[in-house]
Amino acid sequence: MSLYECDGCTEPIRPDKARIQCHICTDYNLCANCFVIQNVSRSHINNHPTSIYKTSGTTTPAVPPPMPPRPVPLLPPRKDTLNGTPPKKVELPTANWGALWDIVKPRPKPAKATPSQKGSGSGELISISPPNNEDPYSYSNHSRNLSFSDSPITKLRPDLPPIPGKIELEAFTNPYASMAPPVPAEWSPFFQADGTQNAIFVDLMTTIFLHLDVENTDSLSPEVYSAFLEMQGVPMEDNIWQKTLFAEGGVLNQEIADLELGIFYKNHEIQHTLAVRHAAHLPPPSPSPTAGERIRRSISLGANMPMLSRQGFIDVMGMELLRDPDEGHRRLGGVVRDYEVWRELGEVPRKCFLEGKVEGKGGRGKRKSLLEMSEEKEEVERRIMEGMLRGAGEEVGMMGSSDGNDDLNTDTEAEGNMPAPDSFTFETTDEEERLIEEKEDLVGHQAERQVERQMEHGMQEVNLSDANTATIKKIPVVIEPVEETNWV
User: Fold this and answer.
1) How high is the pLDDT of residue 191?
2) If you classify domain 2-59 with CATH, what class do you get?
3) pTM for this structure?
4) Where does the record place the DUF7514 domain (predicted)?
């Protein structure tokens, strides 16, 4: 139920007020005020016949008639199956399984590259081998000669892919790759003369990053980045994470490989974040752990796995391409070809890269590994401790002699003239700096105790080991007599 609406003033007409209805115009109503002042609209004119209702009332919408019930379908008369003829046998058409398998058969995955192919151009890394038409399990010459269309059983047994030994990257597996930047009209230089990245290089690296980030985490794990380098044909010597991982110990070196890659990112100021790698496979600690085991256990308790961000991926790729433009052209051209990135532009031309290396722009410097530095530090600590123990033994022997001061001076001068052990230079990390500070504190406390013992015996010179250069220095100590004072 609703009120009538005046077509003159468009106001609702109260049900207890008068209403004027036109007989010519369809659904045309006026209130009393608009009828008196001739406030009409649309096609209504004053000479149309009208009806005046003393009370307007309310509208009653038309109710559609109910739907008629559906007729019950008539069933055919039941036949007498006992006396009737048997039903005719109907032959169902057999399906062509070979043709059906051709429709639903998945596309073959790219075959794994052989070692000889990895060393060649990137265009040979991904290859698709044709299907094997021969059935190795056939037992007759007739079945060997069957083709795919003649042997549906062979079609129903798809070839199982081999189990990969390590991670493999496949192109066009990221559903978020549609968020990549637009494709440019043509290829243009990636860098300026000073090595600054142009916008086309940033867009290209962003597109490749989206293909690699299949989990949409906006970061690449060490496994993915290492596999990406291997796909380009990068040698093991330059693949830091993989080199450390497969050097010895296998998966037990994952934490050390993460730390090595994180140090590489930090040294070259590559943007990355640290995540926690759960290492439940570590064996229990031994009574005398080696340097590698101590490092592995110290870094397995916190965030140590470097996750390469999108900006970090752009920076590290730019650093590698500026380090060797010719090699970068070969590697990047293979990546663009394998992943079919911007394929409408064709092959990446050589003019997109600089003519030569830009000095001071990146580069993969040679550095000692963390294990090598730890072993060298242990050797330094061992030499220092041997020198301290040897000095302590000589001090005990000198205390029993009558001319202890002369012997001590002679031994001190001899020790001062001894060749100092070779100094070692390390690229320190936070863990290494903490170890060095602890070593300096230990040496300092031992030197203070030695000074106190020698001052008690009236000694004038003491030995002090410098923790930085492992050399022996002489520090004179002057002992002055103190006059007695009578206090009143």
Assistant:
1) 95
2) alpha beta
3) 0.41
4) 190-341
Q: Nearest to residue 43, comparing CAs of 27, 54, 58?
A: 27
Res 141: pLDDT:
45
- Of the segments 27-41, 217-231, 271-285, 415-429, which one has the largest average pLDDT value? 217-231
Give the span between the Cα atoms of 158 and 156, in whole angstroms. Answer: 6
Note whether 228 and 209 are within 8 A (CB).
no
Residue 192: per-residue pLDDT:
93
Q: How far is CA 337 from CA 232, 234, 485, in A?
A: 11, 17, 95
Residue limits of CATH 3.30.60.90 in the chain: 2-59
Give strand pairing partners of 30. 20
